[in-house]
Amino acid sequence: MSNTYKSAGVDKEEGYKTVDKIKKAVGETHNSNVLNHLGSFGAFYEIGGYKNPVLVSGTDGVGTKLKVALDTKKYDSIGVDCFAMCANDILCHGAKPLFFLDYLACGKLDSEIAAEIVLGMVNACKDNNCALIGGETAEMPGMYQPGDYDVAGFCVGIVEKDQIIDGSNIKAGNKIIALPSSGFHSNGFSLVRKVFPNFEEEFEGKPLYETLLVPTRLYFKDIHKVLEEVKVGGIAHITGGGLYENVPRIIPEGLCASIDGSKIRIPSVMLELEKRGGIAREEMHGTFNMGVGMVIVVDAEHAEKVLHLLDDAYEIGEITEGAEKINLSL
Questions:
Q1: Which of 139, 113, 120 is nearest to 13 (CA)?
Q2: Which of 19, 178, 238, 322 would be a feasible disulfide site paired with 256, CB 3.0-4.6 Å?
Q3: Is 254 in a helix, a strand, or coil?
Q4: pTM, two decimal places
Q5: How far apart are CA 253 and CA 135, in angstroms?
Q6: Do residues 223 and 93 lie in contact, with contact meaning Cβ atoms separated by under 8 Å?
Q7: Are 167 and 248 in contact (CB under 8 A)?
Q8: Strand 314-321 versus strand 326-329 pairing type
Q9: What's the number of CA atoms in the CB half-sphere (13 Å) around residue 44?
Q10: Residue 269: what are its φ and ψ, rounded to 5°?
């Protein structure tokens, strides 16, 4: 019997099935700017309506949160996570997402699982007026074990050059406003899985995995609601490294983000993780978002307006002068 690609572990037919299952839904994310459809070697996106446009791009994955999804066979939220991790990053510069591409790798392709992951991306793209214009599915036996998946995404957005937000306008006296996270988002799951090895255990009246798999919050609508009304000095997406690593990325030299840790509303699941794992609070803040998914820095005179525009936002500190870019009191 002669060797075939299928005998080597790659089933092209399963790949074709995946495309069939997602093609219609993916097409529903397209708008008049998308000039071609799935199946081309490259995706065409026409840009118009901007005076001096700047493209802003970001790429990310969902890390070992995938392991929770795979072990519990709950795949629908992972695609949302993948999109959100990328789109929330470019949002920090005031960009609106234009289009998104995904990459899905596995040891043995199951079209049902792959389609469910991609359909999560579709729903997130629709919610953010973004087109899913392409992607790649790679079946790689030997590199991944059967049942293993990895997922990553790439998002491109746009902003007028004179409206780019980069933190350069932040000054002493500005207020720091927190937008709550929906949970762990997609960071720190190697530690989460170590402390919580049983995803089926009950937590607050339901299986723990339901809390762990709550998808990363999408901040597009909230942030742009603020940008339409208020001049924003800086925006930080709180991902891996928590406030300690992400807030300093937008703080100019000579200034410090002084944050009152007692004001941070920490989710109960994170407090349980901290307690059960015997994890120091500083370590928690250096690994997880601790309930703060996004930070906005605005002039003090605009702080109340931002809080009015965003029902669940709250103030956690202010910008002061100082050599350290962040001072988080715990």
A1: 139
A2: 322
A3: coil
A4: 0.95
A5: 40
A6: no
A7: no
A8: unpaired
A9: 7
A10: -65, -30
| Residue 122: both structure tokens together | 């579709």
Type and span of the H or E element at 53? strand 53-61
Question: What size, in residues, is the chain?
Answer: 330
Tell me how many degrees the CA angle 223-242-298 measures, rounded to the nearest 5: 35
CA–CA separation, 56 vs 89, rounded Å?
Answer: 9
Nearest to 243 by CA among 189, 298, 297, 307: 297
Apex 273 CA angle, 270 and 276, nearest 5: 150
Residue 47 contacts by C-beta under 8 Å, 6 or more apart in sequence? 33, 53, 98, 158
| Cα radius of gyration (the chain) | 21
Ordered by where they begin, the domains of the chain are 7-158 (3.30.1330.10), 172-326 (3.90.650.10)
The closest of 33, 70, 270 to 151, measured between CA atoms, is 70
Q: What is the pLDDT of residues 234-243, one digit of tens each?
A: 999 999 999 9
- Rounded CA gap, 65 and 258, in Å? 31
* pLDDT tens readout for residues 175-209: 999 999 999 999 999 999 999 999 999 999 999 99
CA distance 273 to 284: 9
The residue written with tokens 């001049």 in the block is 231
